[in-house]
Design goal:
This protein is an alpha/beta fold. The protein is 33% helix and 15% strand. It is built from 10 helices and 8 strands. The protein has helices at residues 11-22, 39-45, 54-60, 70-73, 94-97, 101-104, 110-117, 132-137, 157-170, 215-223, and strands at 3-7, 26-29, 49-51, 63-66, 85-88, 122-125, 149-154, 173-176. The chain has an 8-stranded mixed beta sheet, sandwiched between helices. The longest helix has 14 residues, at 157-170. The radius of gyration is 16 Å and the shape is globular. The structure holds NADP nicotinamide-adenine-dinucleotide phosphate.
């Protein structure tokens, strides 16, 4: 049985855990405060889920998702993640993360910084451009006509293939946005960030029920991004 490992079990991590359990995957959740603090979520998710330390989640996961505030990603110990595919859901919000001059100047992107930190991992940027409520609401089985697409960016073709396979299992199609350096095309503030999945473009994310976005819609939004 395949296992999804999660470093971070908040809005996005908890949602991915739910989608994974629904898909018949085993899930190992972790956070910064310790496995015992995840007992309630684990009980809710059922027998396929367990909580562990971040290193144990990394070890157990066929896929490993890092889904924590960006600034905390640079505190992660790189060694347990070496040689692993790491799915990075992070976004740069200076008001939360503090200022990173290389991001403010546009010299690089947040996932490239994570890749620099996790130099021996294969980082793929994914799940960062959709509100957690929509991520849960818009998952659809393979073949459903209203399946939504999510952009992915990464430098390693095999890592992107494995990411696409995970998306398929969880209920999504993938749009390859290119190398990690193309991640700016679906960073905060771009047309691909949150907006394709809104029913009403003028509504607040958390009040909108969500709306499916097909491959063409997501590609169009990626193309429309400007720096
Ligand atoms: N919320 C969304 O809809 C959304 C959508 C797309 C992308 N994102 C991005 O995805 C990332 C996660 O967002 P979120 O909303 O899911 O965050 P969140 O709800 O605040 O959850 C953060 C999780 O990360 C854990 N964590 C923090 N530092 C950690 C560390 N050093 N080691 C292990 N675990 C750690 C926290 O555990 P403790 O509580 O124990 O510290 C918590 O489980 C952010 O970069 C965010 O911008 C969010």
């Amino acid at each position: 049985m395949a296992t999804l490992g999660l470093i971070g079990s908040g809005h996005i991590g908890g949602t991915l855990a739910r989608l994974a359990v629904n898909a018949g995957l085993d899930v190992v959740l972790s956070n910064s405060r310790g496995p015992e603090t995840l007992a309630g979520l684990v009980a809710e998710l059922g027998p396929r889920a367990r909580a562990a330390t971040p290193a144990q989640a990394a070890e157990a996961g066929d896929w490993l998702v890092v889904t924590i505030p960006l600034k905390n990603s640079f505190q992660l110990s790189a060694a347990p993640l070496a040689g692993r595919l790491v799915l990075d859901t992070g976004n740069y919000y200076p008001e939360r993360d503090g200022h990173f001059p290389r991001l403010d100047s546009g010299e690089t992107t947040s996932s490239e910084l994570v890749q620099e930190h996790l130099a021996d991992s294969q980082v793929v940027k994914v799940f960062n451009n959709i509100y957690s409520g929509h991520l849960l609401a818009l998952a659809r089985p393979a073949g459903a006509p209203d399946r939504s697409a999510l952009p992915i960016a990464g430098d390693d073709a095999t890592a992107k293939e494995r990411t696409t396979a995970l998306l398929d299992a969880l209920g999504y199609l993938a749009v390859d946005a290119g190398p990690l350096s193309a991640g700016w095309r679906f960073q905060p503030g771009t047309p691909a960030y949150g907006l394709p999945y809104l029913k009403d473009q003028s509504s607040r994310l958390d009040l909108d029920p969500g709306h499916p976005a097909d491959i063409a819609t997501v590609k169009e939004a990626l193309t429309a991004a400007t720096r």
